[in-house]
Specification:
Four copies of one chain form a homotetramer.
Chain A: E1 2-12, H1 17-27, E2 31-39, E3 46-56, H2 62-76, E4 79-84, E5 89-95, H3 100-110, E6 116-117, E7 121-123, H4 129-134, E8 139-141, H5 151-161, E9 164-167, H6 176-182, E10 186-190, H7 202-209, E11 213-220, E12 230-237, H8 244-267, E13 271-274, E14 277-280
Parallel strand pairs in A: 5-6, 5-7, 5-9, 7-8, 9-10
Antiparallel strand pairs in A: 1-3, 1-4, 2-3, 10-11, 11-12, 13-14
Helix pairs in contact in A: 1-2, 3-8
Chain lengths: 281, 281, 281, 281
């Protein structure tokens, strides 16, 4: 039985990193399937590396491997993560009324085209219950009053059972406290081409600006609204003939594309965050 | 001998406009080659129309036609312009040091792919003289001190001899007084996807924002910096691998595309300005 | 009460067409919302026109209008169609096993983003029954043996109850006899960028050819396989990293985009067929 | 003084390759700037690797390094190439009458945006002499009769003085004998989206096919016409309004984009040929 692991590694650029890590993999009888290494050209260069490698199950004890990599990482003062490719990530979904991204995610997940587990869908819109439960996924209706976002309730569901959250058109702003307590990645789809058109009604903003290209942006959520590291963007031409209705329709397609690109990159561990940017291998 | 005219017409949306205008053209023995009419869906709808029609030269006396259309326009409280398609527009070019758009314009114009007359190229960079004069186009070097932009000198060249100006990467901001005195259209190419990244160094701004799509925008110049009506935009995907140098290179291609699209639309009289937007037929 | 009509008109290019038609509309107290007229530049030029106009219901008696336009059309030896914009088209859906286009169509139609009636979904794959019936749309399972395509059964459903058919990834080839008997438009989505990669397994063909762009094509069905008039195409970049699985995934998104573009253009009566091409206003 | 080398390596997929090569680089005191490794998922997987690394000049003796890598390559039965990044490739240019790609190449090369040496431009069209010589590049006029392509004359110029050839819209077909004798890479720009529209007049073919997307393809030349491994493609939307003239204009932009993408990838040694395909890192 073969197993495949993915190692993500980042640190200050230094000599010998690839040699050390690839030697370790070789000693485990591992075969490198794909390796991407990229260093920024900045003065204090930073190295990003993703290695996908496979080996006989008996040669790859995850705990042992983890310890060995930790010792390399310590030497280079690096951060790293080691993923078992066979273990699906658990993705919690938060969604408000617009449900095109939700419908797309549920469809793709069921067909095996989006290999994640979905422990729940949480919405402040009750109407999604039927669709979600048709896919046999737990649905929680958590209404949100202006004063009381009931974030604790969301956290109670999310903390243990998810590896990351996706806001598939979730219109409520998560508090910095929530983001900090959750502590894992949260991916949002914004229906505008960031950094343009932050905040509410980006398609109306685009219409008012008279742009000839509109877009959507999938990005990590940070404490600041609509400014987290961008993972994927999609764009499409528009013209004077487009009104708000047709922008919304084109936007639905763009949002699905950008979010899908981002989710696929994320669950294949091809996304590395660094400060306010991403490296996408 | 056949002649072709292009009529641009805009006013508050009303009944009977197409009937009246097309009847006039029919009476001139004219044949409509292309007609685009579009009305905004807003409450106080606005009608935009472009008609391209041809007729025997003897049947189309421009002055007479002009008077007849004026009388229709008065009835509908409309603005209109009538262009003889056979008469080339005269395009004055202003350019600073980056010369990729200039080189492209000169090349295309010489090959007949950009059917305009170019009465002059004005630059605050002396080094372009050789290239411009190889194309047998007058070149004026007008250096610009911070305090003294010598706009009067530019106006002296432009006022009489041009139908419109293009800023083909002209890095100096034209004063509201210049724009008002010149009184005709001025088209600028901005090396960012407006409304993102206004002002200086848009590629550096894009890099700092970590975007995955960059773009360029051709727009009309107004008194406000980088916010005039957008005519054309071009976009291209970028990745973490792109540094400032590669963004500049991709940008050169994007700027040429957006500017060319805009210039072709403009000289074919397919661009109609209305407030802070454009209709591009 | 206002009503909106759409008139499609095509004939040999001649003088006075717009004048005659717009005069008629004016006499009905009609207001032209949008007019597109385009004539091919060929020697024997051909004129294509689409007029969208609205008027008080009492001034627009469809039968009367129809007669009046018929008389104009006879004069110009033109073909025409007059549509009541308020009347939804009835779209029959045929689909084999891949159901991403089907799911998208059903979703958009329910949300009102694809304003058509769907009298039925016919499939040679029984498994779609559940999804289709959740949307409360009749589902007919018509299995197809190699020798017996049971096209008569399909025709029995389609002839009276549909205005057009869409093959939303229908893998069986319709016979020339079927196409002739049905006599109305049939739109197919082909998962390749026609005219490249006709026939079976276009993504495998694309992989073998080592292309760097893949696409999908929505086109009218004619008696010849995969060569009918193209309505819409969508493209996306691929790389050496893409294998058949990832091409299929990207393709799903492309097919939905091309088919949606085509269906929207078609149901808004913006598509005019002429010989082996289309004019899309 | 730092030097940068680029190593291209390909062989049957095996364990230990990255470990061996990166160890060697580490021993030379080298720092890996970028590493891309990709293995095909096929049964008999094939490994492709590109490593860019830098070191003190004194530690990197090219001949010695070459010998050391050769010994590793022999062990893995691999093919490899080692490039000194500081050494510019020499690119011979062949061109017929259409000169938009030529003009673009000369412009970019002069500005330092296309870091190659251009030992000559050869054309069967005399008219390009002036432009080429303005850039101080040798120009050879080699007219081609149907029976006598004078390929020997081209070879005499190309064999010693070039690292590769680019056919920047060269309309004559090179003989298999020429390709074999030259023995190095030849890059062609074809003005169609291969594998569609091979051979002559691809834009006319696209017009006849009524496609809604056109494209251009940069590919390696092989003995078969227009079927060599594809390096880069560019696409753009067209509509029924486009005639041959406007397709040619849009095509000029597409050809420049595809060719530039290909040339940049090639001179940065990011292109690996394998059979009838390419890996572009």
């Amino acid at each position: 039985m073969m197993k495949t692991f993915i190692l993500i590694f980042q640190c200050k650029d230094q000599k010998g990193i690839v040699a050390k890590v690839s030697e370790l993999i070789f000693k485990c009888n591992g075969n490198i399937v794909a390796l991407d290494q990229y260093s920024t050209h900045l003065k204090a260069g930073r190295l990003f590396m993703r290695i996908e490698f496979m080996a006989e199950e008996k040669d790859l004890i995850k705990d042992k491997l983890d310890r060995q990599i930790k010792s390399i990482a310590r030497y280079f003062k690096a951060g790293f993560k080691l993923y078992d490719k066979g273990r699906m990530l658990r993705m919690g979904v938060l969604v408000s009324k617009p449900d095109h991204c939700l419908a797309d995610i549920l469809y793709l997940q069921k067909r095996g085209e989006l290999p994640v587990e979905i422990p729940f869908v949480i919405s402040n819109f009750l109407g999604h219950r039927e669709m979600v439960e048709q896919y046999k996924i737990p649905f929680y209706f958590i209404p949100a009053a202006k004063k009381n976002r009931k974030e604790d309730e969301i956290l109670r569901h999310a903390l243990q059972s998810t590896d990351f959250l996706v806001l598939a058109r979730y219109m409520l702003v998560l508090s910095p406290k929530f983001i900090k307590t959750y502590g894992k990645d949260i991916i949002n789809i914004h229906h505008g081409l960031l950094p343009s058109f932050k905040g509410a009604n980006p398609y109306q903003q685009a219409l008012d600006a008279g742009v000839k290209e509109i877009g959507a942006t999938a990005h990590f959520v940070t404490a600041k609204l609509d400014v987290g590291p961008i993972i994927a963007q999609a764009v499409e031409q528009v013209s004077h003939k487009d009104d708000l209705k047709s922008l919304l329709l084109k936007g639905m397609s763009l949002e699905k594309r950008a979010l899908n690109d981002a989710l696929h990159a994320y669950i294949e561990h091809r996304v590395i965050r660094f400060k306010d940017k991403t490296v996408i291998f």
